[in-house]
Amino acid sequence: MLDVIAIGEVLIDFTPVGSAGESTEQYECNPGGAPANVTVALSQLGAKAALISKIGEDRFGSLLHQALLSSGVDVSGLSFTDEANTTLAFVHLDDDGDRSFSFFRKPGADTFLSSQDVPFDLIENARVLHFGSLSMTHEPARTATRAAVVKAKEAGALLSFDPNIRLSLWETEEAAKQNILWGLPYTDILKISEEELGFITGTTDIEKGSLELQQQFGIPLIVVTLADRGSYYRMTAHDGYAPGFPVKAIDTTGAGDAFLGCFLTKLLEIGNSLNQLTKQQIIDMLTFANAGGAVVTTRKGALQSMPTTDEINKMIDSNKEFKMDSFRPGFHFSPSSHWLNDPNGLVYYEGEYHLFYQNHPFSAQWGPMHWGHAVSENLIHWQHAPIALFPDEHGAIFSGCCVVDWNDSSGLFEGHHGLIAIFTHADTYPETDQPRQRQSLAYSRDKGKTWHKYAGNPVLAEPDLVDFRDPKVFWHAESKRWIMVIVAGDHVRFYRSENLIDWALASVFGQEEGSHDGVWECPDLFELPIDDTGRTKWVLIISIGDNPSCPEGSRTQYFIGEFDGVKFINDNSADHIMWLDYGRDNYAGVTWSDIPEEDGRRVIIGWMSNWKYANETPTGIWRGSMTLPRTLALSCQDEGVVLTQMPVREIEQLRKDLMSWSDVRVTAETPFSQKISDDLLEIEADIDMGSSDEVQIIMKSSGESETVIGYDSMREWLFIDRTQSGLTDFDSSFPCNHGASMSQENGKIKLHIWLDRNAVEVYGNDGLVVLTDQIFPDAPMDSISIITKSGQAKLNLLHIHALQSIHASKDVIKQTLRRGEI
């Protein structure tokens, strides 16, 4: 039994190879013809394929016959005629590899195929019959094609149809449309381009147009090819997108035929009836087909350019690497390669912000910790610097902080000032191999360029404490002492020192207060003013490690209270818990030391990940990034004093284009929708909830992905839904819908959203509620919609800012990559 029989044209494509002068084009001849290309693609991938067609008794006909034979195609249905010459097509390519055609087919041998030439016995025993429209431009081929289609339908074969419109070959456009419409009721699998769909249905909306065809003709499976954007499918029960593959196209001729051959091959391998195909199976088939089409565009010719399985798999694998790098954030800090986690050593010194971070420079997973290093003048654009601290005889370099020793209290700067790093040395006890964590110093006399370990390390050890790490140090002016805040498993310990070397325990806090869902880590303590009241409060930040029984994973809590240089006293009850961020991906955040008083800001940055899946995120040679730097403030609310946060003002320098709307009414039936061409966005929305029960901001990619930011007015609940946000299957806890309580203000809410390639940060009501989430979309976001589930809302104001990338030169290179039309 044959797997697939194709009926239709086989011809010679003359493809340009250069110019012999200003007015002379040179061509090479390549075997082609859409149905023939499909059979060769199938045969190349291991399927049994045959072609029914007619060629001239000329040199070109012999060339085609030999090409099909050598490709493994069954040519028992290929006949010769002396009534006409083999059809020729001259291919014209533009700079992007896209093509147009000039045909020499008046008449062509393929149009002389008659019903007597059709081996109906082969058709009765084939699993699939594939046909196109060009074999119906003239008689007798039109009647022969229709007879084959009817016979295949009666025999129970699947019918695959590719309209493949070439209007210059038809007497009229109406004749083309009517013959295509004749084939649709017989069709089980319709492969159609975006332009062809528009020609048949009159709409450029592929979802609407495909639905119209499916409902009118009962077509079980429609596949729309979208050139470099990939493909879309529609079945009765579901539909979706599969993204394309970025390549530099040379010649797009035959790419659509390769796509179809690859798709049919996978369909035959699965063996399921069409109505049993799952969504994932179809996406996998389309991905394979998209890759096959992309391969063909990278070389000239059609029939002899059909891809092998190895080439397709290589394309898919290389695209995985490209996609991994495509997740590199455009305006969040990330390492150039390998692993990053907690921010460390945040300090401002002599015009530069320093960002140190936990770094494994030899792997994209957590391992022996070093201190990576980056420097910025504006908190937005960062320069990678050499690794600052390496493991040594005392162990790996865990988290810690930096301060400026302005008065040389340490005696390490010969009366001048410089940078001191205070960090955790992590190793094991030689006698027991149990973990050991001790605190040590390093210092820099050249603005952080080079570092020297203190000869007396470690400077602080507590042998009875197992989890004893992450020192955060600051100068407390009132008591004229250095204060170290450090965690010990389930509590915070406060130490004091006059010289940063000799430390004495002052007090402990927290064993019975706040959340203890996980081990306490990465503390910070600082004082902030409360609104414009003239009063201040101290803020104690504590990160909470992952607990398998808690779906939230690692996250960060904070306390509001008083600190006198010795003790911290919590203003709230012991069981009162306040979270810094209600998203899934903000951990280990700490603030910059020594930002000048005239600046007046307290700025924090966090690690944008979660220990539940941090080692598994699909980012390839690099892994881990930071949140946006945020300015912290205290505000009096009904529930008491709370922390607010908003991205630093410097982010505004990345703004470029602005789209703006006001007084837009939104309902379920009349949503707001806007196509976007930039994948780095800042969105400001002032929304009057009106009578709506829920407003959703849907950010959708050109593929399957969508991330939803919503507000439920009945529950007063701000949320992110990333269940369909793209790649989510690397950990079962990643696809989720989560949020936080947020009150309306006179029936209104304010949202400020930053969308990056790998993340979304949502700030509600001027930073009273914040949600930070990683996302890994299958393609760049290309549309934003705002809808209500019921009732009406009003967009009082909506701003969408396109943002520049902090990696501009790399992004320009990415944007030049494209794949050819299929």
What characterizes the major β-sheet?
A: 9 strands, mixed
The number of helical elements comes to 11
Distance between the termini: 29 Å
Q: What's the pLDDT, averaged over the residues?
A: 93
Contiguous uncertain segments of 5+ residues:
809-822
Structural class: alpha+beta
| DSSP strand tally | 47
Classify the beta-strand content into a percent band: 35-45%
How are the strands of the biggest sheet laid out side by side?
5-4-1-8-9-10-11-12-13
Envelope shape: elongated
Describe the protein's architecture and organization.
This protein has 822 residues and is α+β, with helices and mostly antiparallel strands. The protein is 17% helix and 39% strand. The chain is built from 11 helices and 47 strands. A 9-stranded mixed beta sheet has the order 5-4-1-8-9-10-11-12-13, sandwiched between helices. It has a 6-stranded antiparallel beta sheet with strand order 36-47-38-43-44-45, with no helix packed on it. The chain has a 6-stranded antiparallel beta sheet with strand order 37-46-39-40-41-42, with no helix packed on it. Helix 5 links the parallel strand 9 (158-162) and strand 10 (189-193). Helix 1 (34-44) crosses helix 8. The longest helix has 19 residues, at 279-297. It is elongated. Mean pLDDT is 93; it is low at 809-822.
